[in-house]
Automatic annotation (TrEMBL):
Residues passing through the membrane, by range: 41-63, 75-93, 137-155, 175-194
GO biological process, one term: endomembrane system organization
Protein name as it appears in the record: DUF679 domain-containing protein
Signal peptide coordinates: none
Organism whose genome encodes this protein: Arabis alpina (Alpine rock-cress)
Keyword Membrane attached: yes
Biased composition (Polar residues): 1-16
Family of the protein in this entry: Belongs to the plant DMP1 protein family.
Length: 212
Protein backbone atom coordinates (compact mmCIF):
# COMPACT_ATOMS: atom_id res chain seq x y z
CA UNK A 1 0.00 0.00 0.00
CA UNK A 2 2.70 2.41 0.90
CA UNK A 3 4.58 1.58 -2.25
CA UNK A 4 1.54 2.33 -4.42
CA UNK A 5 1.03 5.73 -2.71
CA UNK A 6 4.58 6.54 -3.29
CA UNK A 7 4.26 5.78 -6.97
CA UNK A 8 0.98 7.74 -7.42
CA UNK A 9 2.07 10.87 -5.48
CA UNK A 10 5.72 11.55 -6.13
CA UNK A 11 6.59 14.60 -4.02
CA UNK A 12 10.20 14.81 -4.99
CA UNK A 13 11.27 17.70 -7.25
CA UNK A 14 14.04 17.40 -9.81
CA UNK A 15 17.33 18.16 -8.17
CA UNK A 16 19.33 21.09 -9.45
CA UNK A 17 22.91 20.34 -10.41
CA UNK A 18 25.21 21.65 -7.70
CA UNK A 19 28.56 23.22 -8.32
CA UNK A 20 31.47 20.97 -7.61
CA UNK A 21 32.97 21.45 -4.14
CA UNK A 22 36.28 22.48 -5.66
CA UNK A 23 34.61 25.25 -7.68
CA UNK A 24 32.85 26.51 -4.53
CA UNK A 25 36.15 26.61 -2.70
CA UNK A 26 37.71 28.58 -5.54
CA UNK A 27 34.85 31.10 -5.48
CA UNK A 28 35.08 31.54 -1.71
CA UNK A 29 38.87 31.89 -1.87
CA UNK A 30 38.68 34.55 -4.58
CA UNK A 31 35.99 36.44 -2.66
CA UNK A 32 38.09 36.41 0.51
CA UNK A 33 41.13 37.57 -1.44
CA UNK A 34 39.14 40.42 -2.99
CA UNK A 35 37.77 41.44 0.41
CA UNK A 36 41.25 41.41 1.93
CA UNK A 37 42.57 43.45 -1.00
CA UNK A 38 39.88 46.12 -0.56
CA UNK A 39 40.45 46.17 3.21
CA UNK A 40 44.20 46.55 2.83
CA UNK A 41 43.71 49.36 0.31
CA UNK A 42 41.46 51.18 2.77
CA UNK A 43 43.99 50.68 5.55
CA UNK A 44 46.76 52.04 3.34
CA UNK A 45 44.76 55.20 2.78
CA UNK A 46 44.52 55.64 6.55
CA UNK A 47 48.32 55.78 6.77
CA UNK A 48 48.47 58.93 4.63
CA UNK A 49 47.73 62.54 5.58
CA UNK A 50 44.08 63.33 5.04
CA UNK A 51 44.72 66.54 3.13
CA UNK A 52 47.21 64.93 0.78
CA UNK A 53 44.92 62.01 0.06
CA UNK A 54 41.95 64.32 -0.51
CA UNK A 55 43.99 66.48 -2.90
CA UNK A 56 45.04 63.35 -4.78
CA UNK A 57 41.47 62.11 -5.14
CA UNK A 58 40.15 65.50 -6.26
CA UNK A 59 42.95 66.60 -8.58
CA UNK A 60 43.87 63.37 -10.35
CA UNK A 61 40.74 63.24 -12.56
CA UNK A 62 41.28 66.91 -13.46
CA UNK A 63 45.03 66.70 -14.18
CA UNK A 64 44.74 63.46 -16.15
CA UNK A 65 41.49 64.35 -17.95
CA UNK A 66 40.05 61.13 -16.52
CA UNK A 67 43.02 59.14 -17.79
CA UNK A 68 43.20 60.62 -21.31
CA UNK A 69 46.64 62.23 -21.10
CA UNK A 70 48.77 63.94 -23.69
CA UNK A 71 52.35 65.06 -23.10
CA UNK A 72 51.58 68.34 -21.22
CA UNK A 73 49.00 66.75 -18.93
CA UNK A 74 51.33 63.81 -18.29
CA UNK A 75 54.06 66.24 -17.20
CA UNK A 76 51.64 68.15 -14.96
CA UNK A 77 50.43 64.88 -13.44
CA UNK A 78 54.02 63.83 -12.72
CA UNK A 79 54.64 67.22 -11.02
CA UNK A 80 51.45 66.79 -8.97
CA UNK A 81 52.46 63.31 -7.81
CA UNK A 82 55.92 64.60 -6.89
CA UNK A 83 54.47 67.44 -4.81
CA UNK A 84 52.05 65.11 -3.05
CA UNK A 85 54.89 62.69 -2.31
CA UNK A 86 56.89 65.54 -0.78
CA UNK A 87 53.82 66.46 1.28
CA UNK A 88 53.61 62.90 2.62
CA UNK A 89 57.32 62.97 3.45
CA UNK A 90 57.24 66.30 5.28
CA UNK A 91 54.01 65.52 7.12
CA UNK A 92 55.82 62.69 8.92
CA UNK A 93 57.94 65.32 10.72
CA UNK A 94 55.02 67.43 11.90
CA UNK A 95 53.41 67.05 15.30
CA UNK A 96 50.79 68.67 17.49
CA UNK A 97 50.89 69.92 21.06
CA UNK A 98 48.20 71.06 23.47
CA UNK A 99 48.89 74.39 25.16
CA UNK A 100 47.65 75.65 28.49
CA UNK A 101 44.81 77.53 26.79
CA UNK A 102 43.34 74.18 25.69
CA UNK A 103 44.01 74.67 22.00
CA UNK A 104 46.04 72.31 19.80
CA UNK A 105 48.95 73.80 17.86
CA UNK A 106 51.08 72.26 15.15
CA UNK A 107 54.79 72.33 14.61
CA UNK A 108 57.74 70.82 12.80
CA UNK A 109 60.11 68.43 14.57
CA UNK A 110 63.78 69.42 14.72
CA UNK A 111 66.87 67.96 16.33
CA UNK A 112 66.44 70.17 19.41
CA UNK A 113 62.69 69.88 19.83
CA UNK A 114 59.72 71.19 17.91
CA UNK A 115 59.15 74.48 16.16
CA UNK A 116 55.50 75.46 16.65
CA UNK A 117 54.58 77.61 13.67
CA UNK A 118 51.01 78.65 14.58
CA UNK A 119 51.39 79.63 18.26
CA UNK A 120 50.58 83.31 18.79
CA UNK A 121 53.23 83.94 21.50
CA UNK A 122 56.76 83.86 20.02
CA UNK A 123 58.25 83.29 23.49
CA UNK A 124 56.44 79.95 23.77
CA UNK A 125 54.85 80.66 27.14
CA UNK A 126 52.04 78.23 27.88
CA UNK A 127 53.55 75.38 25.87
CA UNK A 128 54.87 72.14 27.40
CA UNK A 129 58.50 71.09 27.14
CA UNK A 130 59.10 70.86 23.40
CA UNK A 131 62.43 69.04 23.69
CA UNK A 132 60.66 65.68 23.96
CA UNK A 133 59.25 66.22 20.46
CA UNK A 134 62.68 66.19 18.83
CA UNK A 135 63.20 64.33 15.58
CA UNK A 136 64.04 60.61 15.80
CA UNK A 137 65.15 57.85 13.46
CA UNK A 138 61.64 56.40 13.42
CA UNK A 139 60.41 59.65 11.88
CA UNK A 140 62.68 59.09 8.88
CA UNK A 141 61.36 55.54 8.61
CA UNK A 142 57.78 56.78 8.64
CA UNK A 143 58.60 59.43 6.04
CA UNK A 144 60.03 56.87 3.61
CA UNK A 145 57.18 54.45 4.25
CA UNK A 146 54.61 57.21 3.67
CA UNK A 147 56.10 57.97 0.26
CA UNK A 148 56.06 54.27 -0.63
CA UNK A 149 52.47 53.90 0.53
CA UNK A 150 51.45 56.94 -1.52
CA UNK A 151 53.16 55.41 -4.54
CA UNK A 152 51.25 52.18 -3.99
CA UNK A 153 47.96 54.07 -3.73
CA UNK A 154 48.79 56.10 -6.86
CA UNK A 155 49.58 52.96 -8.85
CA UNK A 156 46.20 51.53 -7.87
CA UNK A 157 44.43 54.61 -9.22
CA UNK A 158 42.83 54.00 -12.61
CA UNK A 159 43.38 57.54 -13.90
CA UNK A 160 47.07 57.56 -12.98
CA UNK A 161 47.76 54.16 -14.51
CA UNK A 162 45.85 54.96 -17.70
CA UNK A 163 47.68 58.28 -18.00
CA UNK A 164 51.21 56.85 -17.82
CA UNK A 165 50.45 53.38 -19.22
CA UNK A 166 47.55 53.72 -21.69
CA UNK A 167 48.24 50.34 -23.33
CA UNK A 168 50.53 48.33 -21.03
CA UNK A 169 52.00 45.05 -22.11
CA UNK A 170 51.05 41.87 -20.32
CA UNK A 171 54.22 41.88 -18.20
CA UNK A 172 53.83 45.54 -17.29
CA UNK A 173 50.20 44.99 -16.36
CA UNK A 174 51.15 42.17 -13.99
CA UNK A 175 53.79 44.36 -12.38
CA UNK A 176 51.26 47.18 -11.92
CA UNK A 177 48.85 44.74 -10.30
CA UNK A 178 51.30 42.97 -8.00
CA UNK A 179 53.93 45.52 -6.95
CA UNK A 180 51.59 48.12 -5.35
CA UNK A 181 49.87 45.51 -3.21
CA UNK A 182 53.19 43.96 -2.21
CA UNK A 183 54.64 47.33 -1.26
CA UNK A 184 51.45 48.20 0.60
CA UNK A 185 51.46 45.00 2.64
CA UNK A 186 55.15 45.32 3.54
CA UNK A 187 54.75 48.99 4.51
CA UNK A 188 51.67 48.17 6.55
CA UNK A 189 53.63 45.55 8.49
CA UNK A 190 56.51 47.98 9.05
CA UNK A 191 54.07 50.57 10.37
CA UNK A 192 52.94 47.97 12.89
CA UNK A 193 56.54 47.29 13.91
CA UNK A 194 57.33 51.02 14.10
CA UNK A 195 54.04 52.62 15.21
CA UNK A 196 53.58 56.34 14.71
CA UNK A 197 53.45 58.44 17.87
CA UNK A 198 53.10 61.82 16.25
CA UNK A 199 49.82 63.51 15.41
CA UNK A 200 50.95 65.90 12.74
CA UNK A 201 49.23 67.93 10.06
CA UNK A 202 46.55 65.82 8.44
CA UNK A 203 46.58 63.12 11.10
CA UNK A 204 43.98 62.69 13.87
CA UNK A 205 44.77 63.97 17.34
CA UNK A 206 44.02 61.21 19.86
CA UNK A 207 45.38 62.79 23.01
CA UNK A 208 48.75 63.75 24.40
CA UNK A 209 49.21 61.16 27.12
CA UNK A 210 51.57 58.29 26.58
CA UNK A 211 52.97 59.60 23.32
CA UNK A 212 56.53 59.93 24.57
Amino acid sequence: MSSSLTQRNPMTTPEQPESPPQLKRQHSTSQRAMSQTLTSAANLANLLPTGTLLAFQLLMPVFTSNGSCDYPTRVMTAVLLTLLSISCFLSSFTDSVKAEDGNVYYGFATRKGMWVFDYPDPSGLGLPDLRKYCIRIVDWIHAVLSVLVFGAVALRDKNAVTCFYPAPEQGTKKVLDIVPMGVGVICGLLFLVFPARRHGVGYPVTGDSGRR
